[in-house]
């Protein structure tokens, strides 16, 4: 294909060239340099047009829609974010697993409701029908059922795939990372759930993304609330998905959708409106347990009691400052059965990232950049995979890492500090010619001692270009070799930042480099 | 789908059950426990048969063919291997990039010759035609051309996809990791090439997989050799791929293929046979430069001079002990233009991993487990993507990580040492009831101080089960709380291995844990 394209484009080009060249050649004897330049410019213009229009239809040098490469700078930021997240997961005793990027198509079928249309299928090339994973939760549940695991605390960081409408400047891609932490097992109520919130609190604090809030609710409270407000059973789910829009739409519009589109009575909608405006902490849960309507629902009461218990654990975990019991929180996914939560950044400084989506929201909410973490309890999902329907209760959280990357990248660009993309401690350099062998000998000594070192792949590089490379890539030290240093058995160690230079005995070099670059 | 399966299988089961139950119920009054057991056994047998035959066609709980999950133990090994490899890449000053798991189909077209049939295509769901990446080299070349990068030293560790015949026990999968290190840029000859070999040497030594050898050859020497032996130009590639089989077949069979299948003259084959049996070092390159036939090929001479230069650098890098100039090495991929290399493990102890493939080979080769690393120089690939055909010389190496995982997993299983899957330093436990709150308070203190700590998610767990958990998962310390300890402001710190217990003032606890678990 590429080969064919080359031939086609080139022959086109040759055609153009020929015409121009023939003209040029005819007047070769009398041609001036200026005329040559003019002809060259014409040819180049033609060439650019070829590549710019016709060429484009033949071969496009790009990544697939909704995907991106990570360059070294972005990778350095990504690595930093991952390290923070993984350290936290490990601090809480999690193991890690990995699953394939594609699953049997039927493993994903019936798990995502309407969103199933966003699943990437593989072409039927004979053999099994496969699909790219849509999230990490369903493969996790499949893994537990397949291996009959009833207890595990695991994290999984990997890419997932959704044929959604990408909005890449706001960190919404078709290929994106999820960082999931889940606790599976039959335990006493709300202890693992509270730990998930503690983890979100730790990660968002450590990443230093500005102030945040973690909204908490419970699927049972929502269902109970719908029941006591007079929502027919078969409308729970659709009304729930309308409530879910409250972070993007004002109540009036949400109510309109409920009444006009979903056919709910105005009275029921108004009752829901009253509840979903409520925010608080343990006190709100206590008040609602006394609420004459809410208390009629067994489900709601079970949820409210668990919220109370949850807050008592959150107090012990010292994270109640950021956690809000918010009756308007209604996460979309079908598989949640109990507590649900979502973390949002509230700092105005990063609002630009996604404030498009916020128009119409009230003043306080308009500064949020949307959800950066979310999760909840899903006690039924593993049972869907088990041949005997055996349930494994699970609770988990997923960190929305792409939005965090977007914010971190913007911060890095705004900051004066340079992002280093390598960890090189020292550059082995020389000011004189014919010292390639000596440089290679020295860099070998350093590598063998575990020092991160570089040497230029040139026989006789200029000292200036070697020093420039250090400046550009943030290498702090240069080990300079010359005839004199070799004779004296020393190396001249130069500190790039200060330009200070000192002679170090060759035998002491590695320990001196280690001392000067240790981050203690 | 899953729902439907359940209904169908269950109704089948109900049918069987009904018949059995009806019989059972008729004699309910006089039934014995033994009879019940018998009936239950019959039912279970029926159920198993259902699940084993009919059930299978409806819903299979498995991963896609040729893929696997990594469980926490495998992940711990994988992490260790990756850390060794990444440390080495970083020690040599590499940056890292990432590219999407799928590319435009046309990006991969025309790069892999016959192997193109092994590429996974995505289903055409509207929009672009996409394929899963087949290796990391072609996406790297696309990345360089697209971003007009002419100089980079990068590593990339990611999964690639090949619809090949899997042989999973020997570490051959359809989804597998590649660990690639490449140096792109116009540099002085053989310096980056030598560094790639130094890297292979460092990684294989550090992974401690037993003895190994790195075979080196040059595409130009092969082509020159074919020319001087009288192979027609249009047969270079096919004869080359026959030579590539020498590590799996004896010379007699390779010759037969050349003569009988590829139509080469017996005389030419015999001449090739003489050359490809040659192995050596710099001396062999020197000898061949004097060889009356070989020296007639300019190409071969260029390759041989570079091999000489390469060995001089390898001497400085102190890695010649493992490197062999081997004229039988002929790597398959089309895009190589200069030096090529391949590392093989030679230790008998790990031969079991792939000795199937070795029958017919000679005694020395029969102990090799096949290639664990390979690479070479490809100066033309980036130019295939550049609209103006601008070349960016590249040399790189790919570590065959799945085979290494297989070996490491076997070693781990054979060894008595337990693989830890978490890094938890301390378990917060209690021997008494009603101390959940106190345990949560203490574990919060530890987490907030950066200690990796766990607590059981039970109100009143038994001390024994808490200690057992430590034994099983290798947690070295237990911080035990009781009424007395709380009163005294201390924590009882128990060393799991020795069962030694000492009281530590609560204020000193984190530093004491850190002291006892630091790996200095």
UniProtKB/TrEMBL annotation, chains A, B:
Keyword Mitochondrion in annotation: no
GO cellular component, one term: mitochondrion
Entry keyword set: Aminoacyl-tRNA synthetase, ATP-binding, Ligase, Nucleotide-binding, Protein biosynthesis
EC number: 6.1.1.21
GO biological process: histidyl-tRNA aminoacylation; mitochondrial translation
Entry-linked Pfam families: HGTP_anticodon (PF03129), tRNA-synt_His (PF13393)
Recorded catalytic activity of this chain's protein: tRNA(His) + L-histidine + ATP = L-histidyl-tRNA(His) + AMP + diphosphate + H(+)
Residue ranges of the TM segments: none
Record-linked HAMAP family: His_tRNA_synth (MF_00127)
NCBIfam families for the chain: hisS
UniProt xrefs under PANTHER family: HISTIDINE--TRNA LIGASE, HISTIDYL-TRNA SYNTHETASE
Sequence similarity: Belongs to the class-II aminoacyl-tRNA synthetase family.
Protein name per the record: histidine--tRNA ligase
């Amino acid at each position: 294909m590429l080969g064919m394209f080359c031939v086609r484009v080139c022959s086109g080009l040759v055609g153009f060239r020929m015409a121009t060249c023939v003209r040029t050649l005819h007047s070769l004897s009398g041609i001036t340099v200026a005329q040559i330049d003019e002809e060259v410019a014409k040819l180049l213009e033609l060439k650019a047009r070829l590549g710019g229009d016709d060429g484009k239809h033949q071969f496009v040098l790009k990544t697939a829609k909704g995907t991106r490469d990570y360059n070294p700078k972005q990778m350095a930021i990504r690595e930093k974010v991952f390290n923070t997240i993984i350290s936290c997961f490990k601090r809480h005793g999690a193991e890690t697993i990995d699953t394939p990027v594609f699953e049997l198509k039927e493993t994903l079928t019936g798990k995502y409701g309407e969103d199933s249309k966003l699943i990437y299928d593989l072409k039927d090339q004979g053999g099994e029908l496969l699909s790219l994973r849509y999230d990490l939760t369903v493969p996790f549940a499949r893994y537990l059922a397949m291996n009959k695991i009833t207890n595990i605390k695991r994290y999984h960081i990997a890419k997932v795939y959704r044929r959604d409408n990408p909005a890449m400047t706001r960190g919404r891609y078709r290929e994106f990372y999820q960082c999931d932490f889940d606790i599976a097992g039959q335990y006493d109520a709300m202890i693992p759930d509270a730990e998930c919130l503690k983890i979100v609190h730790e990660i968002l604090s450590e990443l230093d993304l500005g102030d945040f809030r973690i909204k908490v609710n419970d699927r049972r409270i929502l269902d109970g609330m719908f029941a006591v407000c007079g929502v027919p059973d078969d409308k729970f789910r659709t009304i729930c998905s309308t409530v879910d829009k409250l972070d993007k739409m004002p109540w009036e519009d949400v109510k309109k959708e409920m009444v006009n589109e979903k056919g709910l009575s105005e009275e029921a909608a108004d009752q829901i409106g009253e509840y979903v405006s409520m925010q608080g902490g343990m006190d709100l849960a206590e008040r609602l347990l006394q609420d004459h309507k809410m208390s009629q629902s067994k489900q709601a009461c079970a949820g409210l009691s668990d919220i109370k218990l949850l807050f008592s654990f959150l107090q012990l975990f010292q994270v109640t400052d950021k956690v809000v019991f918010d009756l308007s929180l209604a996460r979309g996914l079908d598989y949640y059965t109990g507590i649900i939560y979502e973390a949002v950044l509230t700092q105005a400084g990063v609002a630009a990232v996604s404030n498009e989506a916020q128009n119409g929201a009230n003043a306080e909410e308009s500064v949020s950049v949307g959800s950066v973490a979310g999760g909840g309890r899903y006690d039924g999902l593993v049972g869907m995979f088990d041949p005997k329907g055996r349930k494994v209760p699970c609770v988990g959280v997923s960190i929305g890492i792409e939005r965090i990357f977007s914010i971190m990248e913007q911060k890095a660009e705004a900051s004066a500090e340079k992002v280093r993309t390598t960890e090189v401690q020292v550059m082995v350099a020389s000011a004189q010619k014919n010292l390639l062998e000596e440089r290679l000998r020295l860099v070998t000594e350093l590598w063998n001692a575990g020092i991160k070192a570089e040497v230029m792949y040139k026989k006789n590089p200029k000292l200036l270009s070697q020093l420039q490379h250090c400046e550009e890539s943030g290498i702090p030290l240069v080990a300079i070799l010359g005839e004199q240093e070799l004779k004296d058995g020393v190396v001249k160690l130069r500190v790039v930042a200060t330009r200070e230079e000192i002679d170090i005995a060759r035998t002491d070099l590695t320990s001196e480099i280690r001392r000067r670059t240790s981050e203690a």
